[in-house]
Every structure is written in C-alpha cells, then in structure tokens.
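User: Thanks for the earlier help. One more: SHC SH2 domain-binding protein 1. Can you show the sequence and predicted structure together?

Assistant: Of course, both are below.
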Amino acid sequence: PGAHQEYAESDWSEDSWSDYGSRGKGGSALGRIVPSGNMLFPDIFHTDHLFFYERFRTYQDYILADCKASEVKQFIAEYLEKVLEPSGWQAIWRTDVFDVVVRVVDVDYSSLKAVVELSEPFLCESQDSSFTLECMQELLELKEYQILLQELWVVFDESGEFDQTALAIEHVRFFYRCIWRTWDEEEEDDFDYFVRCVEPRLRLHYDILEHRVPSGLVADYQSLLSQCEELYAKFLHVRNSISTSDSDSEVENVSMVEGLKLYEKVEHLKQKLKLIENPLLRYVFGYQKYGSLQAKGQRAMGAKVTHVVSLTMMTSLLRLLMRDKFCSESCEEVQLQFHNDPLTAVNACYEGDTVIICPGHYVVDGVFCIADSIEVEGYGLPDDIVIEKQGKGDNFFDCTGANVRISGLKLVQHDAVEGILNVHHGKTTLENCVLQCETTGITVRMSAELLMKNSDLYGAKGAGVEIYPGSTCTLLHNGIHHCKEGILIKNFLDEHYDVPKITMMNNVIHNNEGYGVVLVRPVTPSEVKDATAQTTQDENVKTEENEFREFLMMGLFCMTVVTFFPALFPALGNAQPPQSGDETACGEGTGQEQQPQCVTDELELYERAEIAGQIEGNRELANELGATSAKKSKRHKKRLSELGITEADDNLMSQDMFISVEGNQFKWNGKGSFGIFVF
C-alpha cells in the first residue's frame, strides 16, 4: 500500500510516466504478491489493483490516443515496443488448466506475443499430473514457442528493471479482458475508439467495483454480454460459410436470411449494452429485479394483524395507542404483534396487515421488500420516527404490492446504489413523509403507480423523482429540493412504450442543481433536419444580434448616466417632461421620503415577474409533455394506417399523455424550471 500510494502521489502527478520504476531510483516501486498454490513458485508483480485514473491516463495518453477501432492492435504494438523489455525476464504462464514458469527470450510486438522457453528448474502446477516436462515441451513446439502476452504474469524483480514491463502487460491484459469486444473491429472508423468504447466501459468497470451499480443491473449486463458474444460467434460462422461458397443455391439463400436475423439480434443487444455503459442512460431500461417476488396473500383464516414497532414499549405509550388506534366505535377485536425492528415487522406481514411504528430512531441493515397490500404508518411526527439505512446495499424500499401505503416516516439513506424508494408494480401511496436520499430519490417503473403528497424529498445525487414510460405518477403538495434534478421524466416515442400519466399540483421544486423538471427523449429525424437548418440561420443572423446587443448596451449606459448624474447633463435633465405622482419620485430619486415607495414598486414588479415565471414554467412543462404525447399518437395512427386499419376506436387511439400541471412553484433551480435531454 505504501508503494502504491507513493506511485499515485508522485509518479503520476508529474509528467514522468516513462521513468516509472527504478530508472533513476533504487529498487522496484511496485508491490509483490505470492501466487496461490505451488509454494515453490516465485512471487509476481502486484499490478491488478490500479486506480481508474491510472488506467484512464495510460490508455488515453500512451496507448490508444485518438486511434480508430481498426488501428487498436497497431497502436498497442507501438506502445509495447517502447516500454517492454524484449528478453531476460521470467513470467508465470497461466491457463485454465495449468500454471508454468517460463523465461522470455524475445517479443513479437505485431502479434502481441512473447517467445518463451521453460525455466530451469521446471515448475508446473496443474489439475492433474499429466503435464510433465515432455508434454509442456510438445505444447510449446505446437505453439511455436509463442504465448500471448496477456497470459503472462511477470515474476517480481527487486531491481525495478522490469516494472514497466509488468505494468505494460497488465494494461494489455486488462484491455482484452474488460474493454475489448470481438465485434469492435467492425465499428465505424469515423469515431474515436477511446471516447466511444474505452472510456464508458472503463467507467462502468470501476462503478461496479465501487458498488455504484445495482447488482441486478450488473447481472443483466453480464447476461447481455454473454448472449451477444454467443450470437456474434454464430453470425461469424454463418457469414464465413456464405463467403466461401460461390453457388447461388437455396441453402445459401437460407443462410443469408439466417445471417440477417442474427445480425439484427446482435445489433439489438449491442445497443442495450451501450445504454448500460453510458452513465447518463444506464437506468433508461429498468430491470425487474424483484419481478419474481411473490406476495404471501391472506392468512389461512383471513385474519389481519396489526404489527406494533417500538424500541421500548411502555405502559403510557400502550395506553395512547389503545386510545388513538384501537378503540374505535366498532370495538372490533384486533390481533397485535409487537416488534422492536420495523424490517422484521414488514417481513412478517400478510395481505391487509398494518404496521404502526412508534417514535424512535431505527437503524436497519436490509431491504424493505413489500409485495403485499399493507400499510406502514408512523405514530407521531415524521421527524420523530426515523428509519436509517445502515451498510451498503442496492435498495431501501421496494414495492410490488397492489396497494401499498407508507405515511408519517422519515427515511434516511446512506451508501446506496439505487434510490430510496422503487415502485416496481402496483400502486404505492406516500403521504406526510420526509426522505433524505443518497443517490436517486423515488423511481416509478413501467406499469407502476405512485401517489405522493405532503412529503419532503431532498439530497438525491440524481433525480428526486424518476418517472418511467407507462407509469402513473401523481405529485401533490410536495417539496423536492437540493437534488441534481428535481423530476426526471423518461418518455420514448417507440411503440413498445406507453406514455406516462402525470399529475403535478402545488409542488415546490427548488434549489436543485440542474432543472426543476427534465424530460428525456430520443431525437427525431425532423429535429436533426431542423437543427441543421437552424445552424445555418443562426450563422446568418449572428452579426445582426451582436450589433443589436451593442446598441442596447450603449442605450442602457446612456440612460444610467443621465438618471444618476443629472448635474453632468443639465440640458438633458431639463428636457425631461414633468411626471406626476409616484412616478416622478421614482424617476428623479431626489426625495428620501419617497425612496421606500420606489423599493415597494420594485418588489411588486419582482413578485409579479416571479409569479409570471411560475405560470410560464407550468405551461412550458405541460406544453412539452403534450407535444411529445401528440407525436406518439401521430406515429401510432401512421402505423395503424400502414397495417390497413383506417378506422380505429377512440379508446385505442387515445394514447395522449394525461397531463395536469398546475400551481407548481419552481425556484432557484440551477438551469431553470424545465429542460429536455435528447439522446
């Protein structure tokens, strides 16, 4: 660790990368690690613990630079030729079957291979005893004594002479294991390979290592990657079989059709992988992590239980509960269960149960997975009933029940990967709650419904509320503030997604870093055409705008001078026509007793402007969402027309987004009330 810290703070903080190691110093700057297994094996360099910025800088500045996808191997070979020792070092050749110590006698940079020979004494470890000295010699002869560099782990050398060699091989090994894809060579060369592929994949790798990506999304990514590699291998096989055949037979035609189908599937999977690799679009397609979570349903006899949670149950508290919660006019018998942990109480619930949480600070280490229709309510003020998440984890509250109600609680989240509340299915009502977030706030997935009212949400490093396509979200009288974005609406014109139904009334959305409300949607071809035309038009009017702006600035300057320094321009001052009433006082500014009236008028003007801005923010949001909905409806009608359906039922055609945006206040948001993110 000390050597690693010195490496991070000194070598990489200066422009001395090429001098890394012991050249000009004494000894190796890298750590050593003892290989597992054979105790006779020599130690190797410890190089697989590099930081993100170390790999990032090396790939960007020293290996790949601005190369194209087709030039990757060439650029790597040129890099290795500069930093790799061509001979005189030992390494452990590792495969899935055996490990063996070899000595490098030469390097073929163009093929990224090393020419090796077995070391003396012969050291080998395998799953069985069949790999003898003679067998390994025969295997090396078949390989012409050439081994891929990425299969070699450099043996530790205290002199530091081979530090750069060990690091260079580590960078190559990491690249081909974690960054490179077999289909990358077919990427278009019009794009910078590092920017398009290396950087997003490298960031995703370290986001996963640092637990910033939900485990479910990681599993989805690995599954998609495996599927894509398998389908791409099949596609290559089919394509090669077609290219080697000269006959125009029926079999070849069938192969061409099969190849096209495989190609479309591969492209579809590649797009999904790119979405996950992109940190901005990573959560666009929400995965159903708890889709298989089964509800318990009702108890055998249909009984319903009220679960009471309290750190310490006192008789005074019990009397208050009996008076406020259980002594109703019906005087029905209520079955009670007592808990000292809210997570245990929720896990014990069946359909129709109620959880009452008494005042206290509860620290939980786990996820609230609510699959049944239950109520979780706090007995008292939200600030007195705090549930705090302890330890790292993906989620805090996950709701899949048909009708879940949460009220009167304060939820505090730490070290999270996902949002504080995820509504995957069904309807969740959140009332009179305080949510102190860590990453994103509340996420409303496709086909889910959220009713949030009289609640306060803050602190999200992402969006306070994320609304997915096909969902229903009603926000009434809430405060959403001090988040990166206030509300993020994900709406797609693709026919696979229904538009969300949104109601926003009397919310206060303020002090967010970005926009109060932001809409995420794909760019349309018409917008691309309009953007091109607009660019040309902007260039034509740019000169006129600059001249007009200079004219206004000069006019404002002259008005300011005449107003505040009338003595300098007596002729202009006397030429002003006399005004009457308050306007004269404000214009001349000569009477001290009249200055408060000027300030009052300015405040009134400011308040009017602010109110007008709030109204405009609500109108702008409603208009944009309505326009997006109209575009989807138009596409839907066109698709029906192409299918030969000329008359459709009004209910079928009414796919417009249900919009009700009234009385919301947007204040002090960094980028404004409403914005659009187009991808």
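User: Great, one quick takeaway?

Assistant: The CA atoms of residues 614 and 665 lie 6 Å apart.
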